[in-house]
């Protein structure tokens, strides 16, 4: 490759690692990955019981719902059942 094309790029041939340095770098990487995995597993072991106990306490404090489920709709499916209240509206006469 011509010299003017190599200015902005990185040539791998410039870095020459001895084999023991490559093995040391791989070992450090493996130890780092193992450390992160152990940290995540211990965090999971701590947080899962905390979430379960929190859910149990919330259920005990809030209680269960005593409301019965709504009955299945009967009749026409396009009619909405409910309690309706008529509100009187005062309208002005249209003849003015």
Describe the structure.
The protein has a domain of 29 residues. It is mainly alpha-helical and 96 residues long. Helices cover 46% and strands 0% of the residues. The chain contains 1 helix and no strands. The mean pLDDT is 82. The N and C termini lie far apart (95 Å).
Describe the secondary structure blueprint for this structure:
Blueprint: H1 19-62
Overall morphology: elongated
Strand-pairing-aware structural class? mainly alpha
Largest sheet: none
Query: Any idea what the radius of gyration is?
Result: 36 Å
Q: Please mark out the parts with pLDDT under 50 across 5 or more consecutive residues, or reply none.
A: none
Helical stretch count?
1
What fraction of residues sit in β-strands? under 5%
Strand element count = 0
Average pLDDT, to the nearest integer?
A: 82
Share of helix among residues? 40-55%
Q: What letter string, H or E per element, gives the SSE order?
A: H
Distance between the termini: 95 Å
Please give a quick description of this structure.
46% of the residues lie in helices and 0% in strands. It has 96 residues and is mainly α. The longest helix is centred in the middle third of the chain and has 44 residues, at 19-62.
List keywords for this structure.
mainly alpha, transmembrane helix, membrane, 0% strand, 96 residues, 46% helix, transmembrane
